Amino acid sequence: QVQLQESDPGLVKPSQTLALTCSVSGGSITTRSTYWNWIRQPPGKGLEWIGTIHYRGSPYYSPSLESRTSISRDTSKNQFTLQLSSVTPEDTAVYFCTDWLYWGQGTQVTVSS
Predict the structure, then answer these.
(1) Percent of the chain scored above 70 by pLDDT?
(2) What is each CA distance from 43 to 24, 48, 57, in whole angstroms?
């Protein structure tokens, strides 16, 4: 069974860059036909797709966030990383990593000065 675990960035100040890492165990991020995703859920709202990095390493981003988003990976550590720049309080949300079948528990990110 694949397990995913998000890092905990805690409180992030406006205009800073949010950096989150998803550590994967029980499976490899280079396994053929796998897609590794970042999703968020703002308070009181539904799930929002942020972006994906597939097993060959190519990233895809939500058009609404693309200008501020970068997703990368470290295959030696079996991790993939989200960077979201110029954050505002509107980026406050629970952030999840998932391969669509398995999900991390989520990590609360609060953007506040």
Answers:
(1) 100
(2) 26, 12, 31
